[in-house]
Amino acid sequence: MTTRRNFIKTAVAAGIGSSALAQADIAHAAAQDSVTNQMPRGLTLLSILQADGSETLGVKLSHGILDVASATKALGVVAPTTLEDLLLTRSAALLEQLVSEAKDKPEFIRNEDAIKFGRLFTNPGKIVCVGLNYKAHAEEAGEKLPKQPILFNKYTNALAAHNCTIKLPSSEVSYKFDYETELLVVMGKTARNVSEAEALDYVAGYAIGHDFSARDLQLEKGGQWMVGKTLDGFAPIGPYFVSADLVDPNNLTIETFVNDETTPRQSANTSQFIFNPQQVISYTSKLFALEPGDIIFTGTPSGVILGMPKEKQVWLKAGDRITSRIEKLGALKFDLA
Question: Which of 80, 116, 152, 299 is the most exposed place for a label (fewest CB within 10 A)?
Answer without folding.
Answer: 116
